[in-house]
Write a structure and sequence with these properties.
Layout lengths: L11 H13 L2 H16 L9 E3 L9 H15 L1 H11 L5 H4 L7 H28 L5 E3 L9 H30 L1
Helix pairs in contact: 1-7, 3-7, 4-7
Length: 182
């Protein structure tokens, strides 16, 4: 005979502490670095419009194999908060990824919805960036500064996927679940 134990509800204080910790090792930490970066750029002697912000920088451009190792390690470490969030949610109910919709039961509708959301968020974001550039209120964004190596495009795709997974699991799946529970 098997018994299943009903998941116990975590105390509100535990949920709030846990949420602060998950944010502290993920998007919250990233937000703090972004704020410091903005302050650094705004207090520089050069105007914002004359500065360039480079994403996906080469760490060791003179040693491509080591640079690839750096890039892949950065992507893998950035996904640790995702695993942490899923682990914390799984303490109460199994398969949190499935509850967030990470299944292939509706691939076409999910893909269409994903494209619509991408357009809904991306188009205004690009418009805002272009408007800020036109008003000299933003830096030039260089999406990649990787050397000319065979793995640059796959690494950029992995970095984009890592950012999407981090945001969707931590911000949408984890935080919405915890906020509903708290």
């Amino acid at each position: 005979m098997t018994f299943t134990v009903a998941p116990s509800r975590l105390p509100r204080r535990t949920l709030l502490t846990e949420t602060a910790l998950v944010l502290g090792v993920s998007l919250g930490a990233s937000a703090l670095w972004a704020i410091l970066s903005i302050i650094r750029k705004m207090t520089a002697e050069v105007s914002l419009s004359a500065q360039t912000t480079t994403m996906n920088n080469a760490v060791t451009p003179d040693r491509p194999w080591l640079d690839l190792a750096h890039q892949l390690t950065g992507i893998a470490l950035a996904l640790v908060p995702v695993v942490l969030a899923l682990h914390l949610l799984a303490r109460e109910r199994p398969h949190p990824g499935l509850r967030m919709g990470f299944d292939l039961t509706r691939p076409i509708p999910d893909a269409v919805l994903g494209l619509l959301l991408t357009a809904l968020i991306g188009i205004p974001g690009i418009g805002l960036y272009l408007a800020a550039r036109a008003l000299d209120l933003n830096t030039t964004v260089a999406a990649a500064n990787l050397t000319n190596v065979w793995w640059a495009i796959p690494v950029l795709i992995l970095a984009a996927a890592q950012n999407a997974i981090l945001e969707e699991v931590v911000m949408i799946g984890y935080l919405f679940t915890r906020w509903t529970q708290a």
